[in-house]
């Protein structure tokens, strides 16, 4: 047979198969726009503003609808009610992690962010406990964050009040907190190993957010036939894992069962205790992937929020002045802030919540999947179907937060100026997959921002009115525009 004829036949079969697969699932799945064969609904979405596309589609199809990414259906949850009904009321059923082929190639079912089933549950439980200080030896997590806050202000002092882009320094601090928790010690900001680790993680976050990686996740076969940034992603991941394996070997030689120094020690002790368990959750492979996850999930997220926070504080000097007044009143000028202070600082607490609400860092969270066939609002969602939650639709709900597009700490304050808790605050998502690092991230945001504002006045290099605070979505993350500022010592 002629090659061209064979190719045309092949393409036709693929088209028919794709049409058949898409229509066979549609009877039970929620409604949605008609997908194109093979491509699905990709062309109907604005990749630069997925959240806006989802809001527009929800106006036509309601709060629960189906989109096709390639030939794969994805059920979208839009608005507080739908997200709560799924992730909280049916928490177990909606607790699966959506399948991302690029990450799976590195993780192979290990770690915490991309794993599922028993391994996920156990690794998540272990990570949460360790990050909450259980079994982590003498030094508390708070102590480690305070140490980093001190080093951060020393580093900012070196800018001598001159204009600077804070991206690099604000990237170092959260990365170093994770280093201190995982490897026992922080690094100097100029340390070559530290800079190497940061470079590889930063590159990987950029690559993961790139359109090409979304294409690879939708059509995984392309990874095997085309060169591209996915290869750099695999190479960086392999290098980072080798470094972690080397560290684990070093730890093993000096392990003291009665005095674990860090996350690696805690994991190695558990590995020894569980060595006869058939399920083999505690393996060196799982350790390496869990550490990769904590770095990937815990560095760029916190540093981008800090960078967004400083931009919003520059834009709103009246808000900054009130936070500084509260710092003066509760902490004073000399003592380093601690977590106990937060409960006496309702305005600062509201400002940090509002920074996170406004920044809307992960507009569509990470993909979930249903762990069994599930009836949801009269639809039938088959086991394994991917679920996309629009966190933007909850964080920007205009009934809960009037004028959601405006930065206003009043969104989290009652009439008497007390902190007002909101169930709609889902910056860390909700339910069984809720961010493992929520406690740590909130600690870092509070301690870093209060320590900075205790020691410096922030000065914008342009009129604050001219500062643009509109986010631009960069793949998964919503990031602030670049800006410069001066840190003037008080
Ligand atoms: C401002 C900072 C942060 C934000 C806004 C944030 C937000 C999120 C969100 C939205 C998810 C997805 C939850 C879901 O699938 O429903 C997530 C997952 C996760 N985050 Fe965070 N995160 C932050 C910082 C951190 C830190 C500091 C760590 C750890 C050191 C961390 C570790 C994780 C892990 C391990 C997961 C996966 C949980 C799982 O799949 O069970 N995050 N985070």
UniProtKB/TrEMBL annotation:
GO terms for molecular function: heme binding; Hsp70 protein binding; Hsp90 protein binding; iron ion binding; oxidoreductase activity, acting on paired donors, with incorporation or reduction of molecular oxygen, reduced flavin or flavoprotein as one donor, and incorporation of one atom of oxygen. PROSITE patterns: CYTOCHROME_P450. Its EC number is 1.14.13.n7, 1.14.14.1. It is a peripheral membrane protein. Coiled coil: none annotated. Its cofactor is heme. Belongs to the cytochrome P450 family. This is Cytochrome P450 2E1. It comes from Muntiacus reevesi.
């Amino acid at each position: 047979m002629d090659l061209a004829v064979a190719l045309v036949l092949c393409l036709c079969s693929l088209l028919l198969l794709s049409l058949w697969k898409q229509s066979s699932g549609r009877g039970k799945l929620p409604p949605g726009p008609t997908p194109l064969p093979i491509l699905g609904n990709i062309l109907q979405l604005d990749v630069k503003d997925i959240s806006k596309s989802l809001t527009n589609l929800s106006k036509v199809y309601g709060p629960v609808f189906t989109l096709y990414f390639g030939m794969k259906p994805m059920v979208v949850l839009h608005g507080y009610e739908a997200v709560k009904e799924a992730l909280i009321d049916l928490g177990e059923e909606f607790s699966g992690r959506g399948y991302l082929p690029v990450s799976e190639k590195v993780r192979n079912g290990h770690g915490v962010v991309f794993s599922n089933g028993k391994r996920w549950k156990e690794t998540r439980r272990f990570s949460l406990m360790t990050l909450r200080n259980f079994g982590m030896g003498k030094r508390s997590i708070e102590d480690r964050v305070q140490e980093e806050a001190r080093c951060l202000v020393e580093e900012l002092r070196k800018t001598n009040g001159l204009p600077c882009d804070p991206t690099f320094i604000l990237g170092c601090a959260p990365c170093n907190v994770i280093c201190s928790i995982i490897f026992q010690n922080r690094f100097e900001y100029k340390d070559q190993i530290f800079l190497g680790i940061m470079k590889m993680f930063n590159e990987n976050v950029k690559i993961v957010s790139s359109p090409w990686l979304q294409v690879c996740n939708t059509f995984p076969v392309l990874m095997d036939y085309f060169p591209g940034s996915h290869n750099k992603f695999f190479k960086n991941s392999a290098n980072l894992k080798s470094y972690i394996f080397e560290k684990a070997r070093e730890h093993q030689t000096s392990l003291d069962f009665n005095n674990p120094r860090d996350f690696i020690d805690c994991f190695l002790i558990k590995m020894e205790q569980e060595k006869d368990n058939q399920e083999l959750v505690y393996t060196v492979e799982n350790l390496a992937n869990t550490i990769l996850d904590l770095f990937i999930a815990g560095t760029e997220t916190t540093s981008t929020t800090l960078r967004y926070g400083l931009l919003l504080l520059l834009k709103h000097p009246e808000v900054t002045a009130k936070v500084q007044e509260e710092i003066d009143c509760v902490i004073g000028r000399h003592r380093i802030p601690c977590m106990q202070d937060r409960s006496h600082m309702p305005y600062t607490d509201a400002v940090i919540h509002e920074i996170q609400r406004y920044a809307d860092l992960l507009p569509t969270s990470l993909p979930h999947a249903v762990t069994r066939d599930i009836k949801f609002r009269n639809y039938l969602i088959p086991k394994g179907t991917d679920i996309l939650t629009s966190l933007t639709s909850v964080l920007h709900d205009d009934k809960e937060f009037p004028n959601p597009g405006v930065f206003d700490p009043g969104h989290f304050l009652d009439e008497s100026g007390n902190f007002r808790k909101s169930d709609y605050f889902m910056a860390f998502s909700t339910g069984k997959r809720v961010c493992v690092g929520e406690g740590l991230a909130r600690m870092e945001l509070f301690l870093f921002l209060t320590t900075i504002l205790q020691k410096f006045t922030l000065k914008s290099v342009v009129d604050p009115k001219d500062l643009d605070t509109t986010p631009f979505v960069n793949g998964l993350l919503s990031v602030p525009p670049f800006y410069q500022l001066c840190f003037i010592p008080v």
